[in-house]
TrEMBL record:
Full protein name: Enoyl reductase (ER) domain-containing protein
Pfam family membership, one: ADH_N
GO molecular function: metal ion binding
Alphabetically ordered keywords of this record: Metal-binding, Zinc
CDD domains: FDH_like_ADH2 (cd08286)
């Protein structure tokens, strides 16, 4: 089969590799129908993820198959798998989980202690992933979701990672509820997913904040009530002016950070009102300052996290019912054989106005 393989920092290759086989009774092997590229894949490509570097080095010239998102058609099933059979079409969860360990029982599947790696995120990170003709899915009964026939590929793909990540780590951890004022800082793919999933809970106002005017235009099109570019306006002052009233102090109820740099985390601290919640979704590579001298008296909460994908079934129901349409996030379509080209487009997402790729198997 053909696969997109990671050979080392800044080196990928679309090449012929061996087709995966069932290794454990809980495995499923499926043909990839559609896959996509995530920001995490770019982190790996840059050489920022040591586990993936180590796996690539174990197989010189062959490397590690990237990708943790996709939709498959089940081809072979392990003897212990009960929920799937040959021919089923299923959404691949970005998290592989046993369903029975201490962490899985606490809906912390991202920390599953029985996976083939260091966490629940193993596909395309510590074992071969989904950017290939075929993929092996460990713990299939807990790591796949049957795909309804009437849902398009563009929506199914978003349920692999981006929607549950934004919903769980941003919206649910931030405890967004009807009537809240919510600021989303960073309107890339995850921030836009936070916007879409947030809307299903009927907040009073969603404020989109980003340095890219094109992304702000998309946010407004998808339902944001306000859009601000902090490179052009004083976003802090504008947010506090918008949220000031006779019955409460200014500031948002929930601030969702979707970038992962010190400046955006600091902005969330500046925007939050008394009793509010800061939900950090962005992946940070540097230390950030915590303005505890200002925040302690505000009774706020701060949450962080890696997605566990416990919300995938709920999100799928929202898609089926029409309450959520993530297909709008799919901006570019490629064939699997064009995978290297797709990476070039996604690496330059801003200039290409790219949000998410839909990459279809050639066969």
């Amino acid at each position: 089969m053909k696969a997109l393989t990671f050979l080392g920092a800044n080196t990928i290759k679309y090449q012929e590799v061996a087709k995966p086989i069932i290794k454990k009774p809980t495995d499923v092997v499926g043909k990839i129908l559609w896959t996509t590229i995530c920001g995490s894949d770019l982190h790996i490509l840059k050489g920022d993820v040591p586990e993936s570097i180590a796996k690539a080095n174990e197989q010189k010239g062959r490397g590690l198959i990237l990708g943790h998102e996709g939709v498959i058609k089940v081809e072979s099933v392990g003897s212990a798998v009960t929920k799937f059979k040959q021919g089923d079409v299923a959404i691949v969860s970005c998290i592989s989980s046993c369903g029975s360990c201490y962490y899985c029982k606490k809906d912390l599947q991202s920390h599953c202690s029985n996976t083939e790696g260091t966490s629940g995120w193993i596909l395309g990170h510590e074992i071969d992933g989904t950017q290939a003709d075929y993929v092996r899915i460990p713990y299939a009964d807990n790591s796949l979701y049957k795909a309804p026939e009437n849902v398009p590929a563009e929506s199914l793909l978003m349920l692999s990672d981006i929607l549950p990540t934004a919903y769980e780590v941003g919206v649910l951890s931030g405890k967004v509820k009807e009537g809240d004022t919510v600021a989303i800082v960073g309107l890339g793919p995850v921030g836009l997913s936070a916007l879409l999933t947030c809307k299903t809970l009927k907040p009073a106002k969603i404020i989109a904040i980003d340095m890219d005017d094109a992304r702000l235009e998309v946010a407004l099109r998808l339902g944001a009530d306000e859009a601000m570019n902090p490179g052009k306006v004083d976003a802090k002052a504008q947010v506090h002016a918008l949220t000031k009233s006779d019955i409460r102090e200014s500031g948002v109820d929930v601030a969702i950070e979707c970038v992962g740099i010190p400046a955006t985390f600091e902005m969330c601290q500046d925007l939050i009102g008394p009793g509010g919640a800061i939900a950090n979704v962005g992946v940070h590579g540097k230390s950030v300052s915590l303005k505890l001298e200002e925040l302690w008296i505000k009774n706020i909460s701060i949450s962080t996290g890696l997605v566990s994908a416990y919300s995938t079934s709920d999100l799928l129901q929202k898609v089926v019912s029409g309450d959520l349409d993530p297909s709008v996030l799919a901006t570019h379509h490629f064939k699997m054989s064009e995978m290297e080209k797709a990476y070039e487009v996604f690496k330059n997402a801003a200039s290409n106005k790219a949000i998410k790729m839909v990459i279809e198997n050639d066969n």
